[in-house]
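agent: user wants the structure for GNAT acetyltransferase-like protein from Desmospora activa DSM 45169. delegating to structure tool.
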Amino acid sequence: MQIFPKERYKEMVPFFARFPHQIISKSVLAGYTKGTVYADKVSTPTASLLNGLGFEILVAGDAGNRSFSEEAADYIANQAVPAAKEAGAPLLTVYPETYQWVHTLQKRLDERVGYISKKSKQFYALKAHQFKKYHKALPEYASLRAIDADLLKDETLLNRDHLQKWIETSWTSMDAFFQKGLGYCVIEDGTIAHWCLAIFAAGAKLEFALMTVDGYQGKGYAKAGASACMEQAIADGKVPLWNCNKENAASIAVAEALGFEKRRDYELFEIKL
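agent: tool returned. relaying tokens verbatim.
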């Protein structure tokens, strides 16, 4: 398994075409998201592994390539897992392209890691005409603000560093986020209590994720922040995307309240670190 050169990343786009629900692959290949791409052979690749963010791994191509599948499993167990654990990630997720890859990777990772589990996730997309804006007003002591350079420079805001770390984890630079992404947050009495932001970008598509700080749930902040993001994204001609765990009722409720439509259910492997 060899590291594929960044200057040739466009050649790898077809390998991940069957991951429309995981635009992290296109975001990495476009240079917006941190990641490394590997192939069985740099000269004429037939199989590939993409490690995005250090803890999101996609495997695609020829699942019958025994040598590559062995090397991919070795890499995940001996390099990706220790590195993700050292970085403080709670989980490492592996997305197989096909059912053949599911079978191949499960067998090999079981032998090497021994504590993998299958998880189910749901993928949503939002069409402009289906968007349902959240109209409920925030409490008087809370305000909605765009996540921009001025906000991130305000050292008086609590949780500013946490929000900035989210952006720095997903994007190759703050400039990349400001140019290709967007986000909104809710501030309550000087504390950033909630944020929703684009974590991946691929052409006209933006995938969003959100966070509400413990103690601030149940106030409508998630719907308010997400609604502002979707309104801005649609105004900019973008297609908002959303992924969440099948059992994450709160995330699903926000997505459905804003008009997102479920496009698919899918499975992945999860390794707890």
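agent: one observation worth passing along. The radius of gyration is 19 Å.
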